[in-house]
Amino acid sequence: EPNVLAGTLIAHTDAVWSLAYSGVKNHLLSCSADGTIRLWNPPEKNPCICTYNGEKGCDPAHMVASFNTGSTVIYDLETSQSVVMFSSQVESGVQSNNHINKVVSHPTLPVTITAHEDRHIKFFDNKTGKMIHSMVAHLDAVTSLAVDPNGIYLMSGSHDCSIRLWNLDSKTCVQEITAHRKKLDESIYDVAFHPSKAYIASAGADALAKVFV
């Protein structure tokens, strides 16, 4: 609707897969199938501040990104340099081809969590780059992750049609919900926690978005 559209950011040359917003500097990060990550300041006349790719980069001073090479990297937003590459993604100097579908950061701890096509969820220490824990989490590809605002629970979604809620301390599954039907071998695309209320939500290939209490 033209009356609600505040503006359009144009720069990516392929599908935009994910967005992350920082309220500290009112900046927006976007990642795209064109292989780039872009940092935006939307109100500016030239809103694209910087563009990042797999070799170089563009808490609020850092961002974490995963690439279809199987690598996950933390970048310093001020210097545009890579700070940490997670160790389990690199084997004998050759990057793994294990596709990463989602990457999230813990809200209070220096921990990054990745969701993998091979059904795994992996946990990494942001300071050392070393893997803390790895687990087979679903019966099919893990497509989405979300951490609750208090950092107590992790929620994962999968093409096995289920949402699973995990205790982050014990890494155990405390609840499972069959949420969406499969369509063309795909099911759940995204999951989310409400920032202040006891709601969770999911979006699926069956064209439905669901909210659970």
Q: Radius of gyration, rounded? A: 17 Å
Q: Provide the low-confidence segments as ranges.
A: 54-58, 90-97
Quickly count the helices.
0
Main-sheet strand order equals 1-2-3-4
Name of the CATH superfamily of the largest domain = YVTN repeat-like/Quinoprotein amine dehydrogenase
The CATH topology assignment of the largest domain is Methylamine Dehydrogenase, Chain H
Total count of domains: 2
Strand content: over 45%
* Main sheet overview: 4 strands, antiparallel
The SSE order reads EEEEEEEEEEEEEEEEEEEE
Helix fraction by DSSP (H/I, runs of at least 4):
under 10%
CATH class assignment of the largest domain? Mainly Beta
Shape: globular
Description:
One of its GO terms (cellular component) is dendrite. It comes from Ploceus nigricollis. Keywords: Repeat, WD repeat. The protein folds into 2 domains: 58 residues, no CATH class; 124 residues, YVTN repeat-like/Quinoprotein amine dehydrogenase (Methylamine Dehydrogenase, Chain H, 7 Propeller), CATH 2.130.10.10. Helix content is 0%, strand content 49%. The protein has no helices and 20 strands. Strands 1-2-3-4 form a 4-stranded antiparallel β-sheet, with no helix packed on it. A 4-stranded antiparallel β-sheet has the order 10-11-12-13, with no helix packed on it. A hairpin with a 4-residue loop joins strand 1 and strand 2. It is globular and about 45 Å long. By secondary structure, it is mainly beta.
